[in-house]
Each structure stands twice: as C-alpha cells, then as structure tokens.
Amino acid sequence: MASIDRVERQVKRQYDTSRRRAAAQATRQAILDAARRLFIERGYAATTMAELAERAGVAVDTVYTVAGRKPALFLQLVESAISGTDDAVPAAERDYVREMRAEPDAARKLRRYARAVREMHARLAPLLLVARAGPPEVAEVWQSIARRRAGNMRLLAADLAATGQLRDGLDLEEVADVMWATNSPEFYCLLVEDRSWPPERFERWLADGWCRLLLA
Q1: 196 burial type by CB count under 10 A (0-12 exposed, 13-18 middle, 19+ buried)
Q2: Where is the HTH tetR-type domain (predicted)?
Q3: CATH of residue 133
Q4: How many domains, the chain?
C-alpha cells in the first residue's frame, strides 16, 4: 500500500509540474502576442507596459517577471520570427540549416535557403517597420541580429566553398557579404512590401540570383 501511495504522489507531482509549466508558457505566449500586436498597431514607443499587460490579461509585474523590459520583449519577438517557433533556436539546430548542410549540391543548398528566407521574412517584415520607427534601444536589437546573421553567412560561404562549385575568383568574405545583403529583411521589404512582388516570386528570383552570382 505504501508503494502505491508513493507512486500516486509521484504521478501527482509530475502532473502539477506539467500543469504549472504549461500555464507559464501560456502566460508568456499571451504577453508576446500582445506585444507584437501593440508594437505593430501603435508603435514601440507608444506602447506602455500597462497597456501590454492589460491586453495580455496579466499584471504589469508579471510581464516584467516573465518577459522582461520592452527591449527584451522585442528581441524575443524577433527571435521567434526567425525560428518560426515560440522560442529562439540556434542556427545550427534549425531544420532548414540541417537540410542544407546535408545537401551536397550548392544550387540546391541555395534554393532551400531562399525558401527559408522567404518564410522567415514574411514573419519579420512587420517587426522591421517597428524597428525603423523605434528608439535607439530597438535599433541596437536589430543591429545585433544583423551582426549575428553576418557571422552565419561566413559559415554558409564555407559550406558552399566545400562543394567545389563556387565561381573562380570569389573569396569567402565576398560570398558572405553578398548573401548577407540580399537575405536581409530590408531587401525583402523593398521588393515584396514596396514593389508588391509575390513572396514566391521573391524566393525564385533570390535563388536564381545567388546561383548566377556565386556558382560556376
């Protein structure tokens, strides 16, 4: 009987822990959803933490405890848009990066990446508009992401070079810089938002352009 009681207590503890974890995740997601809507609707500077808490249905202290200050909130929104999940995911652990690394053909690597860029920037584009109109603290978040992206492009350039299919005369820094400039959210918005290109057209053009510019 004592053994049964211990098992029941253990099951109850596990259930309670899972329930608390699920509740905490739901609260965090409600805060992030409210932040995204308000930042896009009202702008970063005009959004107060009190309004954000009210929209999320939580106390202001809960917002700070769960998600941090406004710059931290904005960073979490950007990370979520990049990963396509509720949380930040390191580049090496993203599905499309694993697929690209496993692919031996350089052109197919680039076409897979063009699709990932199109999907990612559809989520990022509204946040770019927030960043453009935001204060320096938001610009710094955006610039830190751009610097990280530059580092990731150096890794991609090395991966492309390993296929032996790059054009002669290209060094890895040039390849990385070309990829970095053309895979940016700003570049996506110029063509898709400002010039009304369908996102699928952007993806095809980007992949074709990369192949023509970079591959033998």
Answers
A1: exposed
A2: 25-85
A3: 1.10.357.10
A4: 2
